[in-house]
Amino acid sequence: MIVNYNIEAINTVAQQVLDAATNKVLLFHGDMGTGKTTLIKAILQQLGSTDVVSSPTFSLVNTYDTGSGPVYHFDLYRLETVEEAYDFGIEEYLSSPHWIFIEWPELISDLLPPSYHSICLTLVNNETRQLQFK
């Protein structure tokens, strides 16, 4: 699925992502400023979360409540080694049956479960993003 969208359509796109997902591990790729966290916020709203969503850049993981279980949101941008991921227990999170959203997943590619979806975001212009869902 490839979709071009603007901020006004982000909730529709978030629902499309959820509808297309055949598993609960979503990897978010894209340069800084392409809207990874903004899309994750919209997806969490579609899942029923009313929590304040922010990028877990410094905490590495944020947990959000959806009413039907937690969602784990990772931002691995600051990780320098895979050992740092092991230090905070990434393998336990990845074996969870709950939704897992990972920004900057490249460092832990060898740790990922066999089944996941990649969401690649690119900047089309100041108002438009392109989402490629695999």
Automatic annotation (TrEMBL):
Gene3D superfamilies xref list: P-loop containing nucleotide triphosphate hydrolases
Iron as UniProt keyword: no
Keyword terms, alphabetized: ATP-binding, Cytoplasm, Magnesium, Metal-binding, Nucleotide-binding, tRNA processing
Family membership noted in the UniProt record: Belongs to the TsaE family.
Coiled coil: none
Gene encoding the protein: tsaE
SUPFAM superfamilies: P-loop containing nucleoside triphosphate hydrolases (SSF52540)
Pfam family, one: TsaE
Alphabetical list of InterPro entries matching this protein: P-loop_NTPase (IPR027417), T6A_TsaE (IPR003442)
Keyword Lipoprotein listed: no
NCBIfam families per UniProt: T6A_YjeE
Protein name: tRNA threonylcarbamoyladenosine biosynthesis protein TsaE
Subcellular location(s) of the protein: Cytoplasm
